[in-house]
């Protein structure tokens, strides 16, 4: 990681950039309004994509800036499109594919518009600001948490915030915690640092009151990665954050909310009992996912078809009524086939390779923010091993926005090899 000082450069404002900031700011309201089958987040994302593409085409440039990882992303989207052949519900499949294409296009648009470090830092600051409001509202939705089964395998009264499920709030909180943590480390002025610290603290609190075991695992993995990679260059602030969480945060929680603290302990222990929730039998759902994969291994059951297929298929024993497969890779393999799952793995591997190059080739400020983005995605990936929360539009497009920002950071690493920071004709 290069320790040279960073020249963020002037911020060049444009309609695509302003539209992108508006899209990010409106992300928490993504499902509040809808037009037919499309939510507000779908409409704002489509508007930003169209504005950016038209601006670049009129200027005589390509619609998007390319990224090496995008070839695997394109392959994944093509396989999703082909998997519509096997679907039992063409309308649901078409809607799912359309949203997937929209998400991929949004990631490339973020990469294209955020051509300078100043731009993607401003975009992430807007995301942190809106995430802070989500965290405040999320804590307000917390009820009287009670165990529905022995060992806290199932709880009622968990906070949900703007989402429909506590696990979704957990995912959002883990992602914002990583990004805000990185922003707090590299912030160049106190207002931004205070905002980032506030967002990180509130996100951590929401992570706890969501009682999402998968999100806890993801946040632990992401925080560990971020701390290990940044402590060398940001030792003072890293130690302050860890000390604040250990010396102040944990005792304060134990004193202020003793019933919840005992439930947190029980919830942690229930991680090792995947079938402890009587309303959510993961082992049986996993078996159903494997059955669907074996039935259509190449192209899967069709986009968006896991839940209806689990209800319609013939089986013996307990009936399966699961909205999703409780595993990101099983969900992809069941709906789009093992080829799609393999492409997803390759996409992650190539992006990880590009991230490692970024870590050694760009200034440490950019590298630290880049690792915050990587840690955020890692938290989603780890939670995705035991849950699937990306069916929520807010989370789905949040991940695409984070991917687009990471594209922008790693692209600058490639340009740094030749001392060329791309400015573009129209952004």
Automatic annotation (TrEMBL):
Gene Ontology cellular-component annotations: membrane
UniProt key word Ligase: yes
UniProt key word Ligase: yes
Subcellular location: Membrane
Membrane topology: Multi-pass membrane protein
Keyword list, A-Z: Ligase, Membrane, Transmembrane, Transmembrane helix
InterPro entries: O-antigen_ligase-rel_domated (IPR007016), WaaL-like (IPR051533)
Pfam short name (any one): Wzy_C
Transmembrane regions listed in the UniProt entry: 12-34, 40-58, 70-87, 93-115, 122-140, 169-187, 194-211, 217-234, 241-259, 328-352, 364-382, 394-410
Domain O-antigen ligase-related: 199-345
GO molecular function, one term: ligase activity
Name of the protein this chain belongs to: O-antigen ligase
Record organism: Brevibacterium antiquum CNRZ 918
